[in-house]
Amino acid sequence: MTPPVILVFDYPGRRSEARVADLRLEEAGYDVRYLMRSPLPRAVSSEDYAAEAMSRITDPDLRVHAILAYCMAAPLGQEAAVSTRCARLLLFDGEPSTPQAIGTEFRSMVESVETAAAPLPPWWKAELLDDRSDTFLKLSEQYLTALVRRNVASDSLWDEDASNEDEIEEATVSLVNTFLDWTAYLVAAYRSDFPAWEGKVTNFLSRSQAIIGSWPGAALTESVRVDSDRTGLLSDESTRRLVLEALEASR
């Protein structure tokens, strides 16, 4: 018997929170496909980002049992549910991306290489986030490249010989790409139309996560509160049990 297929949207960067992989759904007999792998998409909308992530699936007639998405990957999971006609979308502290969240994360990236608190760049406008072009990412790349190059070059570990110039450039490109991957993900998640589909959203929530009573576009929304903090939500055995119950109920 072919194991049921599960698609997962879970950003792979460093974080203190547990991951969807910590649910160990493979041990329960599921074929789990983790779609967010390097190189990550740089698409400018949820629809395009999800499509690019899903382009790695080689099975032309794949039947998807469920789609799982963590946090602000929720709109990406919704796009995948629409395109695959999957009726089951399981979210974990699922919430939409917002301009405020993008601004907070952008400042955090800047402050990770600057010694002083930094304001958002002067070109930062909400209209750029709403504009579904690559203008925002291009401006971000220019700004972050100059910022990172300046700070890496001023580090006392570097001197002025040619070999270190190459190392400076390599370090700059690597760090800027990491920043841009994260920025592109947040922006694409924000640029979502939350398309309607005849599916159900089940949102597993940690203790302090706000409830979204009716997920936009979903035919039905269910919120399940778990007695766990956000960091441990996906590694909590109660979450795993509830998720397996939800998956089994829809088989």
Topology, pairings included?
Elements: E1 5-9, E2 31-34, H1 46-54, E3 64-70, H2 74-84, E4 88-92, H3 99-111, H4 126-130, H5 135-153, H6 162-190, E5 197-205, E6 218-225, H7 237-249
Parallel strand pairs: 1-2, 1-3, 3-4, 4-5, 5-6
List keywords for this structure.
6 strands, alpha/beta, six-stranded parallel sheet, 251 residues, single chain, Rossmann fold
Explain what the structure shows.
There is one protein chain. Helix 1 crosses helix 6 and helix 5 packs antiparallel against helix 6. With 251 residues, the protein is α/β, with parallel strands linked by helices. 39% of the residues lie in helices and 15% in strands. The chain is elongated, with a radius of gyration of 20 Å. 35% of the residues are buried. The chain folds into 2 domains: 5-96 and 192-249, 3-Layer(aba) Sandwich (Rossmann fold), CATH 3.40.50.1820; 99-190, no CATH class. Strands 2-1-3-4-5-6 form a 6-stranded parallel sheet, with helices on both faces.
